[in-house]
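Quick note —
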Amino acid sequence: MLFGKPVSTFPDHALKNFHGAFQRAARRPMTQRLPKSALWFACGNVFLRTIKREDASERWAAWLADPWTIAAVNPPRTTLGRKEIADYIRSFDQRAHLLLGIFERHSRRHVGVIRVDIDAELREAFVSALIGEAEVRNSGATTFAFEALLNHLFFTMKLARVSASVLERNRVTLGYLAKLGWTEQGEAVSTRANDTGEPLRAVRVGIDAEGYRAFRASPLGQRVLRRIADAARRAERR
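Predicted structure written out below.
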């Protein structure tokens, strides 16, 4: 991401344009400092927690070179190892910039990462996520993790809006987010593929607190919540 520090090593779709308001806010005198967070949330058959330096691994580094990751999220073209990942983790203050890991509950295997950048004055957050393990990508892990995360951002932190960036060609993800109550915001932004240089376009999507509450109360939202509860019960029996 191109929003202050730390510099992200995954999703990076022309975020300078998306983060203009965040950058301007960063130059204003801060009237409050967010407390340092050590978060842990159970969510279905996975749990979400604050990443630690010891979570750095060569496997995590390999996620960023995976062809699926390159096509879906356009990570910067760079080679990373365990040390670089550990340094990346250390660059997060875990206050306004959170780095969270997604882990399987039964095995405690690390399967993904969520980054959250928060502007407390604007009461907004920008998120990006990566499920690195291929067999977990269509298992519901992202939906489960985001249910816990959005609960925290909207109901505990009292934020007003959460936004994200999705490549325009990733129509599956855009369609899925629309079903979950996320809406497209403004025109798509031009960028380029970091591996080939081909032109790409990225779409900003977002959901506000009212929209999230409405989704949770909808028939689909209720089915998602039941699915999360069922997955949690199965995980506890393993």
